[in-house]
Amino acid sequence: MLMLSLQSQAADGQKIYTQGAANPAAMACATCHGADGMGLAATGFPRLAGLPAGYLSKQIRDFRSGARSNPVMQPIAAALNDEELEAITAMLASLPAPAYPLVDRAQAAEGAGAILALRGAWERNVPECVTCHGPGGTGVGKAFPPLAGQSALYLKSQLEAWRKGTRQNDPNDLMGSIARALTDAEIQAVTEYFASLSPEVTP
Amino acid sequence: MRALLPTLLALAMAAPAHAAKIAMEDQSQIAPTPAKPDSETYFQPPREQDLPDDAFGQLVQQGRAIFINTRKYAGDHVGNGMNCTNCHLDQGRKANSAPMWAAYPMYPAYRKKNNKVNSYAERIQGCFQFSMNGKPPAADSQVISALSAYSYWLSTGAPVGKTLPGRMYPAIEEPAGGYDLARGKQVYAEQCAVCHGDNGQGQKVGNDYAMPPLWGKDSYNWGAGMHRINTAAGFIKANMPLGKGGALSDADAWHVAAYMNSHERPQDPRLVDGSVEKTRDRYHANDGVNLYGKAVNGVLLGQGIQ
After folding, report:
1. In this complex, which of B64, B93, B243 lies closest to A178 when CB atoms are compared?
2. Using the beta-carbon criterion (under 8 Å), do A106 and B242 form an inter-chain contact?
3. Predicted confidence band at B13 (pLDDT cuts at 50, 70, 90)?
4. Which residues of chain B neighbour A122 with C-beta distances below 8 Å?
5. Phi, psi (rounded to 5 degrees) for A167
């Protein structure tokens, strides 16, 4: 019985993603996030494919409540019911995403972006990003989403939102305190660094 | 030199009658230095980009790699999921996180822990035996050479034998009434679990821990300095949550340190006759504030991972 209901959830998730939810205010996610869930980097619509379901569902709930402020996502999130929310996020988490190399901190760090990502700026209490976001920025658990290959424009908008305080749904103000310590040039550099990481080339 | 030795020895033996008392600093209970105000900077280790690309520089880089990813680069000597950089932040550079530049110049030094004067190599061996729950590398091994070179390089320009501000972790006073495990559990849930897991299990990426386990089979063992509540409280106060050191009150740092150290972890490798009680008497009863060999909620701590 459980297997059947899971299956119908998964089918619903795909359907909602490509056609929209029961409430028409929740338009098809694919419109902005791409048919493959990889987002539209140039316009700043983030990749969702392969992100943890727990992270995605928290973001949608936070859009609903306003803990994460976004005028486009707020009405969409509000129009999704919990069952639809669970279905889409489970489906997205299961989508294939490129395998980014697990760059660890032993590697050389050249350029402001790589330095922040792999060494941090400890004089300002900024840990290296990969400590929490995983080697190569490939993400850790449900609280620390992948950064590798994510849209630079999107990453930049989020760091700025934390810095300004328009995004406040990070656990413990962990990202807020980091973002407030970064300069504009650093935000530019580190977001470009993560966006530029290429997936491993399989021979 | 040979001819001189007997003379030198005779001088040394004669000295105590006239010389000032020589204090042998106990390196297992290091007297902390007060943290500097933010306006003053701590000792600055050399920059990575200034490391020469010669044989010495390469050895230093090897040491750095081992320091960051100890399981990967010194796996034969690691019996858990920890890396040096878990407790020595910013790759061994961060003041008040037991930086290497404040440790290296203080050795050789007497340590009560093993009742002898330790070389720096022996000190690192201790880290492997306890904090890394592993079989320590030989004193003249590549691993020790590389880690020593890394520590030496970080200490460039630091005075030898003089305690630098920022050494070790700051001292935290035990709150009136001692530790409060219920409060510690609450602090843990609010401040720590997001990274270290609801059950202190850490978080993995593939086979490696991205965030270290704080108790259980993959964490530091009962012989590690971090098992002391006072030591852990100092580390936590200055450095945790990551990037938000100083955010917790002293009392909360103490309570959450106690909570963390009130769980089981791998056995102390110095276990005496298979007895937790005997081991407590010999090694833990006079070792700061710790719960090894004590009963917490009716359960004897220190039995190790069954």
Report:
1. B243
2. no
3. very low
4. 89-90, 93-94
5. -115, 120
Instruction: Spell out which chain B residues touch chain A, with contact meaning CB-CB distance below 8 angstroms.
Output: 48, 64-65, 68-69, 72-73, 85, 89-91, 93-94, 190-191, 194-195, 203, 205-206, 208, 210-211, 241-245
Q: Residue B274, Cα to own-chain centre: how many angstroms?
A: 25
Q: What is the dihedral of CA B172, B175, B176, B179, to 10 degrees?
A: -130
Residue B28's pLDDT is what?
A: 57
A30 token code pair: 């694919």
Q: Are B107 and B162 in contact (CB under 8 A)?
A: no
Q: What is the DSSP letter of B241?
A: S
- Phi/psi of residue B118, nearest 5 degrees: -95, 140
Residue B21 CB partners (closer than 8 Å, separation 6+): none
Q: Which two tokens stand for residue A81?
A: 């019911």
**Would you give the distance in Å from CA A95 to the centre of its chain?**
14
Output the CA–CA distances (angstroms, integers) from residue A172 to A143, A156, B192, B258, in the order listed. 11, 20, 10, 21
Amino acid at position A16, single letter: I
Q: How high is the pLDDT of residue B5?
A: 52
pLDDT digit string, tens, across residues A141-157: 999 999 999 999 999 99
How far is residue B194 CA from its own chain's centroid? 24
Q: Do A140 and B65 touch (CB under 8 A)?
A: no
How close does chain B come to A108, measured CA to CA in Å? 9
Considering CB atoms only, which of B68, B194, B208 is closest to A171? B194
- Kindly report the number of other CB atoms within 10 A of residue A60's CB atom: 22
Q: Report how many Cβ contacts below 8 Å link chain A to chain B.
A: 67
| Nearest chain A alpha carbon to B67 | A106
- Please name the residues in contact with B172: beta carbons below 8 A apart, sequence gap of 6 or more: B230, B233, B234, B237, B250, B253, B254
User: CB count, 10 Å around CB of A108?
Assistant: 9
Q: How far is A107 from chain B (nearest CA, A)?
A: 8
Q: Average pLDDT for residues B57-71, to the nearest whole number?
A: 97
Residues of A whose CB is below 8 A from B64: 106
Question: For position B306, what pLDDT does the model report?
Answer: 79
Q: Please, what's the b/e burial string for A136-152 (b: 16 or more CB within 10 A of its CB; e: otherwise)?
A: bbbbbbbbbbbbbbbbb
Count the helix, strand and coil residues of chain A and give each as a percent rounded to the nearest 5.
Answer: 55, 5, 40
The CA distance from A57 to A11, in Å, is 18
Contact criterion met (CB below 8 Å) for B229 and B261: yes
CB spacing of A171 vs B211 below 8 angstroms: no
CB atoms within 10 A of CB B145: 16
Do B173 and B117 touch, CB atoms closer than 8 A? no
Which pTM value belongs to this model? 0.90
Contact A172 B194 (CB under 8 A): yes
pLDDT in tens, A53-111: 999 999 999 999 998 999 999 999 999 999 999 999 999 999 998 899 999 899 999 99
